[in-house]
Design goal:
The protein has 134 residues and is mainly alpha-helical. The chain has one domain. The protein contains four helices and four strands. It has a two-stranded antiparallel ribbon. Strands 3-4 form a two-stranded antiparallel ribbon. Strand 1 and strand 2 form a beta hairpin. It is elongated and about 70 Å long. The two termini are 31 Å apart.
Length: 134
């Protein structure tokens, strides 16, 4: 009886995870406007390899440059691209990284929940999957 109760709770949670996956949608590929290699203060950085914290720091720094350039009414180019293009790319990369993190988190939770299912429920789900594929 306790197995059935736990199994039903687990199935509800698995459904919630599936709903989140659907809402999250398919991951889009990161397609930068720039060449992804920016040089600031004599240091060249590839935005493709930065983590969320590093991307956020760079985004704030570039935004301050963009605000200053606007206030000073100058066209500001960094490493061959307008500062707005860098900001767009970093925002896109941040979104991409966030989506990947969420996908991975959902996969881990789903795996943990599957392990917690009773053997009877696992067998039932496997049989249902086979029947669906026939």
């Amino acid at each position: 009886m306790a197995n059935e109760t736990n199994d039903s709770k687990i199935m509800v949670l698995k459904k919630q995870i599936e709903d989140k996956k659907i809402k999250l949608g398919k991951s889009q590929k990161f397609s930068p406007i720039t060449n992804s290699s920016i040089e600031l203060d004599g240091v060249r950085t590839n935005i493709q390899v930065l983590n969320k914290e590093q991307l956020t720091f760079l985004l704030v720094k570039l935004n301050s440059y963009a605000i200053s350039a606007k206030d000073l009414e100058v066209y500001f180019v960094i490493s061959g691209y307008h500062v707005a293009d860098w900001i767009t790319d970093i925002k896109s990369k941040l979104d991409f990284v966030s989506r990947k993190e969420e996908e991975n988190k959902l996969k881990v939770m789903e795996s943990k929940l599957h392990q917690l299912l009773s053997n009877e429920k696992k067998v039932e789900l496997e049989i249902d999957e086979i029947m669906k594929n026939l």
